[in-house]
Amino acid sequence: MRSRLRRLVLGATALFTAATALPAAAAPSQGRAEQHPSRDGLSAVIRYTEYGIPHILAKNYADLGFGTGWAQAADEVCTLADGFVTLRGERSRYFGADTAADGALSGARTNLASDLYFRGVRESRTVEKVLAEPAPVGPSREVRGMMRGWAAGYNAWLKKNKTTDPACAGASWVRPVTELDVAARGLAIASISGEGRFVDTITTAKPPTGTTTAGSGPSARKPDAKAVAKAADELWGAPGMGSNAVAFRGDTTANGSGLLLGNPHYPWEGGRRFWQSQQTIPGELNVSGGSLLGTPAISIGFNTHVAWSHTVSTGIPANFHRLNLDPADPTTYLVDGKPERMRKRTVTVAVKDGAPVTRTQWWTRYGPVVTSLNSQVPLPWTSTTAYALYDPNASNLRFSDTSLGFSKAKSTDDVLASLARHQGIPWVNTIAADRAGHSLYTQSQVLPRITDGLAERCSTELGRTTYPASGIAILDGSRGDCALGSDPDAVGPGIFGPARMPTLKDAPYVENSNGTAWMTNADRPITGYERVFGTVGTQLGLRTRGGIEDVAAMADKGRLTVRDLQRQQFANRVPAGDLAAGDVARACAALPGGSATGSDGKPVDVSEACGVLKAWDRTMDTGSRGALLFDRFWPRLERAVPPGQLWKVPFSAADPVGTPNTLNTDVPGLATALADTVTELRAAGIALDAPLGAHQFVVRDGERLPVPGGAGQLGVWNVIQPTWDAAGGGYTEVPFGSSHLQAVGWDGSRCPVARTLLTYSQSSNPESPHFADQTRLFSGEKWVTSRFCEKDILSSPKLKVVRVHERH
């Protein structure tokens, strides 16, 4: 049986190789193949290995998209279908208008807001207009083929298979999709940190009528500059996504090749999950890694020569323009004294068990009118003033082409070349390493072209506070000379060109944990970039400090291998604990009678906590005792004590990794935070020395799996962020944290040395054998050995071959 299977695979491989044996330089013939699919339609061969990882073999890009769409549907059909309901603006029709929206593709709070926005995007033909643009502004022929193929593969799977996932089995909303749906998903992902964050206010903004200010009541107040800056900082600093990544130069490694460790932090459920695969077109493309669901290309991954990952950046991907309105018409604004009417976007949404809802949105040359940053911080639309949002990623469909360029890269320079050509990365940094020993960090992303000079010259009174404080520009939209302008190397107006991007090449290490570009390498700080990219010389987060400490020590040690990357991922060290736990334990032991007063004024016996903290091993391993106590204590302390009072040694830009330090144990908030933490744990029935894994967990197939890792606020590299439910007696199941892990290097062979792990496993379907298999590995801090080369794929004891096709 095994030999017959091997012959089948070899035969399929030979067939595809013969069909595509031309070298990569023979690209024109590949283009002809894209235009003339076979008479039987699209097809691919999918070889499944351990943990349900598909290795997709295809003759061209459309076929590759077909195999990818098929395989993604097999694992995630309900999650994908739910996302397509969102993109069609039909959530209210199927699930009700007031139900909480799918948070994967926008920040909308309700289905109605989500539908009004996404139907508006669809009815304005935004996606079609971008698709019609020639590359590189629009997608290339190869990516168009992949999107078309993905839709066909998804549809073919639906036609051939019965859905077993109880989340959508038999649901009428699971329907075929088109290339337009796939492209719309890509556009939503690109703009999720811009327009996507403002869906609620875009869809509710109304002009004032008569003497009434739009959003009368609290929203009619004049915007408070400090409140707006704080809200904006919190808005774009929210922990909905995050990541760590590090690349090492060849002279720090055992064999002179580079090394890369990628550790993105994403939701464990829903449409922002990664999905793992290998994509191969013989002679043209061979790449392995993780894709964001519904996208046809590998988002983070590796090939024979290069490995790359992304981290969410500090760049602010949108800005505001204050509009001066015509006194006679609040839907007309003035630019250089000339009136321009706002564009009405009237949208009707079908509602389950109710009448359709029709609402109007208002759009300007800059973008949609918005009336708030959040429910507490208004940007009022008055008879004289309104605010418009500009998001350059709202027309950015270049992410897949940029990623495809990475997938075909042979060096870190090729990674930079793809970034320069396509300019499609919306809200992340890129970290890469290659076989030749090069390292790369770059914050090459699509940002509004806000230079410090422009902000100085054109900021409104409000913007003069928000821009230096948080990087949020609020410009005078009434002046034509305040337009964002163009860089000569940018693919279009209003964004920065590649030459402006903060970049560091060939440092011994480059590391990012969602901090600014400045401290990518502590010995080679990056400076000179515009404020909109991030700050220089400001206090680092604990995860950034801990990451730099760890990787700098690794680089100094040298002789690094992939195994060292694996150890770093699961070290689970707690930098906040190293800095403060000993001092807290000593301060605790010095409390008279072992008692502290809680915030309710009641005394609490905290004496047991003193010993637990003293004995704690300063890790977030599942067996660590004291980890949960410190995990609940530290955020409470940070909330209780002003930042300037928490440490005795303040932050110094001359020692950004080492400062601030030395906990100020004299602050009264410390004892109170300790008392409240002890009270909280005892009320939940949790022992103060309970092992972390007993309370940080997921349940899969009825089995409670302990989960290692901890909060980024504690500085833990392996981020795991559960939600505390006081009424439920502790943490709920882990919903967010480390996701698609990859530790990649090279040796003397043609095959990369790679270890991967998809923490939440390949499928959301509880009926799938790959619903929990990698989650069990993550619980035990184990990895998957990547099968990249043909010999490794064919030798898999779990090898399963599926030939998928579209019949016309």
Automatic annotation (TrEMBL):
Record's compositionally biased regions (Low complexity): 202-220
Keyword Hydrolase: yes
Family matches, as InterPro entries: Ntn_hydrolases_N (IPR029055), Penicillin_amidase_A-knob (IPR043147), Penicillin_amidase_dom1 (IPR023343), Penicillin_amidase_N_B-knob (IPR043146), S45 (IPR002692), TAT_signal (IPR006311)
Keywords noted in UniProt: Hydrolase, Signal, Zymogen
Signal peptide as annotated in the record: 1-26
Region (Disordered): 202-223
Family: Belongs to the peptidase S45 family.
Protein name in the entry: Penicillin acylase family protein
